[in-house]
Structure prediction request, 189 residues.
Amino acid sequence: MKSQDIVVLLKLISLQDQELAKGGDQLRSESIGGDPYSVRNLEALLGISKTEIAQSIKRSVASGIARKDNRLNEPRPHRRNLFEFITRGLKFVFPAKVGPMHRGIPTAFAAPMLQQFLVSGGTYNYVWPYAEGKEMGQAIDPLIKSVSEAALKDDRLYEYLALVDAIRLGNQREVGLAADRLKSSILSK
Prediction:
């Protein structure tokens, strides 16, 4: 398993959520080649090569955190298994490394959609390093290098990735808040 597998699966969940909200026709019209779940479209949205995306999906299916929908021939994340892995194992397999002060995109509970859930007690915010970022904070190694660009294209994915970072970084209280929020976001659909 690689860290990009988590990003790919969270993007697939985001696409499924968008399909429910917008409708399949609109989502197909916005995607490259008319198929939002194609490796070609995922490559454009995530900045990961088509080969890496295909390998990622194979690994995820083999590990049980995704399945192949035979009717539609599309990858489908197994939401409950993915949630369990993120909340119980991710911080051990892909620990977050805190780096020096950097300009970037806010993550964890510093992300705009999560700020109201936790008030920080004087510590610096966490950011994904990004040259065009406007926030200053302690750099966090993202799950993939292109996470900033991918998150800026998709608010839902941004929220999921910020919650994942909160779980990777946080204390017990922060992890609990992030896990509850992630559970209500990805398991309620």
